[in-house]
Structure formats: structure tokens, C-alpha cells
Amino acid sequence: MNNKRATKRALLTSVMALVMCVVMLVGTTFAWFTDTASTGVNKIQAGNLDIQLLMRTTDEEGKTDYKNIGDSHDVIFGGENSLVAQNNNQDTLWEPGKTQVAYLAVRNAGNLALKYNIILNVKDEGLIGALDYAIVPQSKLSGENQTCTDTIASWVDAKERTGAESGKLTAGTFTAAPNGCLDEIAHDKTKTNETEYFALVVHMDENAGNTYMNKSVTIDMKVVATQAAAEFDSFNNQYDKDAPLDFEPVATADELNAAAAAGKNVQLTQDVTLMDAVTFNKAVTIDLNGKTLTSSLNSNGYSLVTKANATIVNGTYKGTGTARGIGAYGNLKMSHVTVDVAGQVGVACSTSDSQYTIEDSTIKGGYALCNFSNNATINVSNSTLEGKTTGLYHNGSNSGLNLTVTGTKINAGNNGTDATGVYISGSTATKAAGGYQKASFTDCTIKGNAAVEVKYTDLTLNNCTVIATVDSANASYTQNNNGSTTNGFAVVSTDNATNNTMPKPEGTITINGGSYTGLIGLHNFSGITTKFPGFVDTTYVINR
Q1: Using 50, 70 and 90 to split pLDDT, how confident is the model at 24?
Q2: Cβ-proximal residues to 16 (8 Å cutoff; 6+ apart), any chain
């Protein structure tokens, strides 16, 4: 008996030991090594490009200083109230042999290296044939309180100075002194307020005859700057070497039309109002420069037309008449621009195989952003599209579309059955030309009577908020081969069927997360399966 008890105790002990081993083994199986590493908050800060035009001033005690005149709109010389006259210098009526000197400077008041051109805009009223000019470099200094006391002794002295740019004054706008550069800040952050000093000298020919009496000329000076190739990215300092500097300063509609005719890049220096359409036939950069370009044109056409590749940046384009807004017939890049057009179209893309990029911009119109081109590649990011009828529109008569939209708000106002946030049309011809069109929306908010309606399109929606502003109970579907056919749908694919023929929506719609208010898919419309018993909807892949 004792032996049996001992055996039982031994067996029990063995079982317990085995259990403990298993427990320990399981424990070690899930004992992973762990560690973490993290950085602080990483901040990316854009630099500041800031150039100033300065002029030498002299107080009553004879003390010399340089003051910023770039935003003063004062005249440098040419009368008793000119800046020259205010600084105890003679500014009399002109006669043969007279020379007038204005001591000026260009200062880099920002924290980025820059390059610049000095531009003169000359309007002749009979005197220009008697006048010469010179831009005379003097010195380059850094520091807050630096001044230049060098003086020009005579017209001959001005012309003979090393580096002087001189010649006859000519009517129109021209670069009087090119290729200035203020880049010390890129190499030494203590080198702030780098300044180049120069003199503007105008001389009336000693041999000018009586034909010039009582005649005049006006001279406007502009300093145009852009970033210089100095700062380094991860590879070299050449990433901004092609930043354009050949801008034509524009203050009037006439100047804008002249620049367009000459094929020049433009930079607005004042708000400008157009009475007629303006067309750029060559590749162009239009820098609105924080100003507003307004068109009051009443027509069925476009008020601003770009026939070649175009870049439009930094400002507002406003259409107050019935005309359409911007018509692009080449590649288009638009950045930090507000387009607000009362007419039918805000911005339209109209050339096959072109690329259109809209970033950090707002477009408003009857149809805000339209595509009328075959095989267009369109990228929209961080923007707002507001249409009275449609926010974003693709015309189905054109084959092919590759559309990518991120971080953008798209809205169509309540304007009847056609108030659709996004409408991408298509046809069997579209499919035959290259398969289904491609459209992708990520982190977007889209609203309309119908929010998104597509035809013959593979559509992907990633984390979007999509709202049909017509209640689902009042949803509708009307067969129509021209335009939107639905109301009350958050997302739907349709076709161009008419006369009660069988709808055959095609393509795939993929929904990855997000929020959707309204019907999804035509099969959800009440009565569709009764009216069309053989109806098969497009393929929907929904990943919530």
C-alpha cells in the first residue's frame, strides 16, 4: 500500500514539474526584445525672398543715409517734388548738356540668396531721342547701417566707370542692368542686409536741337528678383538655377498685351483690369505678384488664353463679365492662385496629351475646373473647386483621363439637376481608345446634388467625405446622354443610355474608408431593377 502511495506521489510530482516546464516554455516564447527610438518634432520652414530698392537721402545737417523707396510710388527725379529735389539736389527743367544722378541701392532684406535685374520702363512724349542713360555700380556692403558716399563727377565719369551699363534711352520696357546677385546670406548667416549700391544717370545730349523743346519722357524703374543658385539641397546648389528672372513688369492692360505679343514672362506691379481678351502664344510665366488681374469681358470665349505651356502663380484672377476665365492650350501649372469667374468656366484644359497641375489654389465659376482634352493628366492638390453647376468636370467627347486629386474641397451649388460636385463623362469610344479612365481622390471633401458621378471610369476614393445634398428619399435617375443624370447619389457610375434602353455602367469604383451621405451605386435607386430587370451595376469594392 505504501509503495502505491509513493508511486502516486512521484507521478503527481512529475506531472506538476512538466506543467511548470510548459508554463516556462510558453513564457519564454513570447519574451520578445523591445526598444524604441524617436526624434523631436521636425519642422520645415520656408525661406523669405525680400528685395528692397533704396535711395540715398541727405538731411539738413548733411548726414547721408539710404531709405527704402520701393513701395513709395514717389518719382526719383523729374520735378520740384521729386526725391532728388527733396534731398537738396537741383531738379530743374531739362536742357542740352544736363546730367541728373540718383544714388540708389538694392538690398537683400530676406534670408535667401537672390539674383536680380534692374528694369526701366520708358514712355516717350517726344524727348527720348535726346537722352542717354547709365547704370553705374558703386560698391557692395553688408550690414544694417552701411552707406555709400561715392559720387559721380560727370557724365563722362559715369560712362567710363568699370561695369557701367549705358546707352540711348529706348521706348518700352528693357533690362538696363542684368545679372545682379546678392548671395552672401547663403554662405554666412551673419551677412544680413547685403546691399549693392549703384547710380542711375540720365544725360541730355549737348547737340539736342529746338525740336526737343517742351517735350518730355517718363522713366519708371523696377527691380525684379528671384532665387539664386546658392543654397544646397541634398544633391547640389543647382536646383533653382532655372528660376526665371526675365519678367516684364506690368502695371496696365496695354503693358500686359504688349508683353503677351512679345512672348515675355510678366509680373504684375499693380492691379490690372482688362477690357479685351489677352492671348499668350508662347510659353509664359505669369506672376500675379499678390495683385488682382480682372477681366470685364462679355463674350462666350475665354478672357485669358495660353496657347503654349504656362505657369500662373501668386495672386487673383477675377472675371466680372460673362466671358469664361482661363483657357489653357498647353501644359498648365497653377500655384497659389484664386480664380473667381462669373462666367461659365473658371479654368479649362483643352490640349491633348497635356499635363495640368493645380496646387494651393481656389477656382470658382459655373464649372470651376474643366477638361476638354484627350489623354490629359491632371493633378490637383490642397485646393478648392467651387462650381455653380459642377466643381470638377471632364467632357465625355474626349477620350482618356488620368486624374489625381488630394486634400481638396470640391463643391457644386444647388442649381437644379446638374449641380454635381465631380462629373467625369465618357463613352464606348473612351473605352475603345484606351480602356477605362482613371480617377483617384484622397482626403477630399466633395459635395453636390449628386456628389460624384462617373462614366466608363475606374474611380478610387480614399478617406474622403462625400455628401449628396439632395436627400436619398428624393434621389432621381434620368436617362440622358448629355451631362449628369442623377441626384441624391454620393457615388454612382452611369452611362449614356437613352429611350429606356438598358443602362450598362462600366468600370470599377473602389471606396477605402471615409464618410458617405447619399446612395452608392445605381442599383440602390428605387425602381431601377423593376424598370430594367436585367440591370447589372458597375463593380463596387468597399473597404470600410
Answers
A1: very low
A2: none
Instruction: Say if strands 99-108 and 486-487 run parallel, antiparallel, or are unpaired.
Output: unpaired
Q: What CA–CA distance (Å, rounded) separates 150 from 370?
A: 58
Mind giving me the DSSP string for 199-223?
A: EEEEEE-TT--GGGTT-EEEEEEEE
For residue 305, the SS3 value is: strand
Residues 442-470 have pLDDT tens digits of 999 999 999 999 999 999 999 999 999 99
Domains of the chain: 51-227 (no CATH), 247-543 (2.160.20)
Amino acid at 173: T
Report the alpha-carbon distance of residue 116 to residue 179 in Å, rounded. 6
Which triple of cell numbers denotes residue 280? 499668350
Contact 274, 295 (CB under 8 A): yes
- Dig out the grid coordinates for 243 from the structure: 528660376
**Is 421 buried (19+), middle (13-18) or exposed (0-12) by CB count in 10 A?**
buried
Whether the Cβ atoms of residue 462 and residue 512 lie closer than 8 Å to each other? yes
Among 458, 461, 478, 475, smallest CA distance to 519 is for 475
**Type of residue at 28:** T
Rg of the chain over Cα atoms, rounded to whole angstroms, equals 34
Which residue, among 265, 321, 264, has the nearest Cα to 298 in the 3D structure? 321
Mapped onto helix, strand or coil, the DSSP state of residue 309 is coil
Give the mean pLDDT of 171-179. 76
Residues 6+ apart with CB under 8 A from 293: 256, 268, 271, 272, 274, 304, 315, 316, 317, 318
**DSSP-derived secondary structure letter, 473:** G
Between the CA of residue 92 and those of 72, 99, 120, 367, what are the distances in Å?
22, 11, 22, 57
Which of 165-169, 286-290, 423-427, 479-483 has the least mean pLDDT?
479-483
Give the DSSP per-residue string, 517-543. Answer: ESEESGGGSTTHHHHSTT--PPEEEEE
Strands 216-227 and 292-295: unpaired
